[in-house]
Design goal:
- By secondary structure, the chain is of the alpha+beta class.
- It is built from 6 helices and 6 strands, in the order ααβααββαββαβ.
- A hairpin with a 7-residue loop joins strand 2 and strand 3.
């Protein structure tokens, strides 16, 4: 699923405005870099895409975007924390995580497959008393580059 930069900027701007924050040039550039990455990205990867940025500024802006629900953290195998747009911006999806290089990619399932997964989870949890509100699936393995 590809994000459209104009729509993404509109959503981010509105979310920040609702929280009483400003959509600064630095935040806008960070959003553009995340759109361009098209998968969960770590701070080192973002810095590699745009070397002139300062690491402390990136962390600060990422924390601000996370606090208003624009981005969320994705933890890989033993890799640094990665960031991606929140589900309401990018849509419900899951992750593949390479156990060799640590790369994290998104994948989407059909609506029918999601219903089957949710039914299976409900059945598995039926006797536990746990009431699920959402799910996230991380599939560990080896990416094509590492095979």
């Amino acid at each position: 699923m590809g994000l459209r930069p104009v729509e993404t900027h509109d959503l981010v701007s509105a979310r920040l405005r609702e929280a009483g924050q400003i959509y600064t040039k630095g935040r806008r550039e960070l959003v553009e870099l995340l759109v361009r990455a098209a998968r969960p990205a770590s701070i080192p990867e973002v810095l590699e895409m745009r070397p002139g940025l300062t690491q402390s500024s990136l962390y600060r802006n990422m924390a601000d975007l996370e606090s208003v629900g624009v981005v969320r953290r994705v933890v890989g195998a033993s890799d640094p924390t990665r960031y991606e747009f929140s589900v309401d911006i990018i849509g419900h999806h899951h992750h593949t995580i390479c156990a060799v290089c640590g790369v994290v990619d998104d994948f989407f399932m059909t609506a029918a497959a999601e219903r089957t997964l949710e039914t299976s989870l409900d059945k598995a949890l039926a006797t536990s008393g746990f009431q699920p509100s959402a799910h996230r699936l991380d599939v560990f393995g080896t990416c094509p580059d590492c095979l």
